[in-house]
User: Which sequence fits this backbone?
């Protein structure tokens, strides 16, 4: 159950687009279309942003989108806003009723 | 609205036990799989355990298997995590989280999270 690999930090200016990567293996990200993404503001609980690789829950802005290619999943945030500054975590089902998270990416809006 | 409220955290000595609770409301608790996820200070999220809606299936991360037990009381709309043989590495905020689909297993992601309860293991 090794953690998925995410960049420690990303940054962008308001209005720009940024993409956060999440790299795993064929046993997790590459093996299942069950990648999810969570946003966490400091001192707050995580919030689901994307599920099943590319689906957005009701109420999540369409500026957030997800994709996957091989063993790497990606979260793209377009039209960056100050409120998007937060930590972002990917997660994947790994089979046999276990899950793994990425190490998290701190997004800074310049 | 859907709400999850964790409780039971605190300061505990190494080697001791602690039981966390998660009170659920706003949905039919007995039909959803549930997770526990933790976050050590300044660290990322770590999946801990999952339980099916009927409580008959439960699975654990390698780091806690054999020491932690997840359970639920559907008559009380409450999820539990019994933690034994605690070490400093178990110090974290513990979140309970709800699976997305009723009567579906496994709960493939976490669609609603509680605010967490803090566990500190220290002598």
Assistant:
């Amino acid at each position: 159950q090794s953690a998925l690999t995410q960049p420690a930090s990303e940054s962008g200016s308001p209005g720009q687009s940024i993409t956060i990567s999440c790299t795993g293996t064929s046993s997790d990200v590459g093996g299942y279309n069950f990648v999810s993404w969570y946003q966490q503001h400091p001192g707050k609980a995580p919030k689901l942003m994307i599920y099943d690789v590319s689906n957005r829950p009701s109420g999540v802005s369409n500026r957030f989108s997800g994709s996957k290619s091989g063993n790497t999943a990606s979260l793209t945030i377009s039209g960056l806003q100050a409120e998007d500054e937060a930590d972002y975590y990917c997660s994947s089902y790994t089979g046999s009723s276990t899950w793994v998270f990425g190490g998290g990416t701190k997004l800074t809006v310049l | 609205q859907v709400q999850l409220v964790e409780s039971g955290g605190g300061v505990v000595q190494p080697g001791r036990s602690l039981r966390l609770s998660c009170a659920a409301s706003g949905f039919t608790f007995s039909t959803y799989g549930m997770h526990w996820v933790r976050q050590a200070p300044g660290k990322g999220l770590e999946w801990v355990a999952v339980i099916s809606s009927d409580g008959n299936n439960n699975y654990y991360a390698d780091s806690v298997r054999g020491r932690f037990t997840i359970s639920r009381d559907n008559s009380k709309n409450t999820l539990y995590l019994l933690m034994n043989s605690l070490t400093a590495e178990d110090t974290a905020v513990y979140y309970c989280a709800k699976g997305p689909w009723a009567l579906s297993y496994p709960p493939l992601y976490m669609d609603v999270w509680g605010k967490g309860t803090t566990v500190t293991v220290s002598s």
